[in-house]
């Protein structure tokens, strides 16, 4: 945190006697007055904690003046939320959402004088549907307690509500969507918590609660996914076909296993080593300055994301004056793929601390399209291992990566179904694997994994909407070796 920026959470008058301290003769001479400042203390690995410091004086007036001045300073922080709508998924991750909120988060919100309306969800889509009914405009933010799936619900509710209120048809894949200025806070209590980890740098409920309290704001790109002019879903983290789609499909049947289900299904999917044929067409993201092979990652105050934000503001100003840009060139790739991963952000998570595309940006209006072509099991394992270490994940002859603003995918199977009259044998028994006719392995489509939810269609059209939503976060901060000491000194400077 910048030392000029206040990291105070709350200021309270304190009864001095309760804080028994050895202050020698002062205590005997006069009645002491005190106030306590609760502030953010930065610890290692992007973790934030709430700490406090008590100040005392024999001068009651001086004490009151300080308390008043600090409270006024806090009042002036207009970006801080005062009223929040909170959705808790009691069944996400290890089913600890309610406990985490009540024990770790609610006391901090109350300390920071934030009032809350809390909804404990009773079924899937409860939060999403509810966001179409409530008066969302009275809130400074919506908080979800759960995992990526719960975040996805809240995001769909908010984006959908904004488009409905503005008369925008979500089924139109070319529609300019209305930005959503009501920020979303994520209290991680899921299985992967990739969105929280990639935007804060850690999956920790207290840290996330403190980012909400100090009123952080991080814009985020959102991809819209359509099939045949029908809206399917939005995505902010991973849109994965092949490996990650198959893991998700298998793991959904094993929700009872909790977060372990991904390891079990991951191992199974790895052993099955399925590849899928299809065609990808994409438009490169020429507007952004970065590349997926950059060494630098997106960090707090990222220059590339700021530039994209400026371009977006210009476009919004010019909209109406200018006609839609002419069609840019499409690149087409046909092939056999073990995995097709499109990521709007790095997708860093505790399992993969750098993520699937370490140089992807949170708010640059682009996604990184990663194509993992058919290769041996051993090579695929080498690729997967690089999700977890520092080595370059794209430095393989069977892996390609492109920074794109939109793409389309059609599986070979659906191309064939659309264009050919299938013979009776195929219709009855399914299509047989052309490479191994003797093995009779059935070719089926994979499933798209869209931020942890499956999509019903394999043929999709995807478009990145630059900075469509905002989070209570600030992106991952640059490593600071002496963060704890720095935070302490910033509070001392302030007082
Ligand atoms: N009360 C509920 N009962 C059943 N399902 C719910 C309920 N509330 C929300 N859900 C659904 O549960 C799904 C999964 O929840 P969540 O994302 O919180 O946990 P997770 O899947 O374990 O974690 P992750 O998404 O990080 O892998 C969400 O898609 C959401 O729609
Ligand atoms: C033998 C080594 C295997 C290493 C495997 C590493 C696995 C890394 C997993 C990274 C997934 C990150 C993408 C996040 C996706 C989320 O949207 C989704 C929902 O929470 N999670 C999953 C697992 O699909
Ligand atoms: Ca992006």
Automatic annotation (TrEMBL):
InterPro entries the record matches: ATP-NAD_kinase_N, CERK_C, CERK_PH, Diacylglycerol_kinase_cat_dom, Lipid_Phosphate_FormReg, NAD/diacylglycerol_kinase_sf
PROSITE patterns xref list: DAGK (PS50146)
One GO cellular component, as annotated: membrane
An example Gene Ontology molecular-function term: ceramide kinase activity
GO BP term (any one): ceramide metabolic process
Chain segments annotated as coiled-coil in the UniProt record: none
DAGKc domain location: 79-229
Protein name (record): Ceramide kinase
Taxonomic lineage of the native organism: Eukaryota, Metazoa, Chordata, Craniata, Vertebrata
Gene name of this polypeptide: CERK
